[in-house]
Amino acid sequence: MNLAGKVAVVTGGSRGIGRAICIRLASMGALVYVNYVSRSSAAEETATLIQQVGGRVEIINFDVAESTAVQNSFKKIVSEAGSLDILVNNAGITRDGLMARMKEEDWDAVIDTNLKGAFLCSKAASREMMKKKWGRIVNISSVSGFAGNPGQTNYSAAKAGMIGLTKAMAREYASRNITVNSVAPGYIATEMTELLSEEVREQIKKEILLASFGKVEDVAGAVAYLVSDDGSYITGQTLHVNGGMYM
Asked: Hey, how many other C-beta atoms are within 10 angstroms of the C-beta on 133?
């Protein structure tokens, strides 16, 4: 799978799953723009890791939930790189809490970043893709968007919304040779899952057929497949990477 000459943007690319996706796409030859909002040191670390594998990388700071910032940032990317071929909508936040106690601002923050952000970035990126009549968009959803998760009504709703967004965009952009797909990870070993107690981790593993948490590289591999020529006849689909936790 070769992405030489392609330009990719990965939102929320400074750490975790986003970082793994950035490294994987860069190792395949793409020029990768690593998006971040507040953790510049983490973005710099991602860039260093990409350079260590001989990849090309740029860092760009913008909030995916801010319309003007998104538009200006994508214009800058196209101006600098001369192209935009791949978008991975990975940026996401959590503001967990039971629905009965959830603050409205916590609902809004998660929907704005996780769902509205994917809409804004896809809209901005698709302008360049439509001109070229080629593009790949991958939305990072979650098992929570399919099975639901107590204490995460906002997160589950946003991730479920990304599936509808994926299917609608796939129908709209197919005539321009732009594929739009989703990857829905289950429990992946990241900084977030490391915060769980050992008891909770073991309980979760009992619900996973493969009895272990996934690796960030597992998700990156799924994204790499969908944006490569090997995945060129796939659109409007969701690839579940959850070890059999949800089927």
From this structure: 10
How would you list the strands of the sheet with 238-241, edge to edge?
A: 56-61, 31-36, 7-10, 86-89, 135-140, 178-185, 238-241
Please state the rounded mean pLDDT for residues 9-33.
97
* 182: nearest Cα among 100, 104, 118: 118
Which is nearest to 137 in space by CA: 155, 153, 124?
124
The residues facing 188 across adjacent strands are 214
190 Rama class: left (phi>0) / alpha (psi -120 to 50) / beta: beta
CA torsion sign, 102 to 103 to 107 to 109?
negative
Tokens of 171: 């129908």
The pLDDT, as a whole number, for residue 157 is: 98
Q: Report the pLDDT value the prediction gives residue 33, as an integer from 0 to 100.
A: 98
- Which residues in the chain belong to E strands, given as ranges? 7-10, 31-36, 56-61, 86-89, 135-140, 178-185, 238-241
- Write the DSSP assignment of 98-114 as a string of letters: -GGG--HHHHHHHHIII
Helix, strand, coil percent values for the chain (each to nearest 5):
50, 15, 30
Is residue 113's pLDDT more than 80?
yes
58 to 52, 123, 185, 187, 229: CA distances (angstroms) = 14, 21, 26, 29, 24
**Cα–Cα nearest to 30, from 215, 222, 228:** 228
Identity at 119, one-letter amino acid code: F
Distance CA 59, CA 36 (A): 8
Average pLDDT over residues 198-212: 92
Catalytic residue IDs: 155
Helical H segments across 28-66, by residue range: 40-52
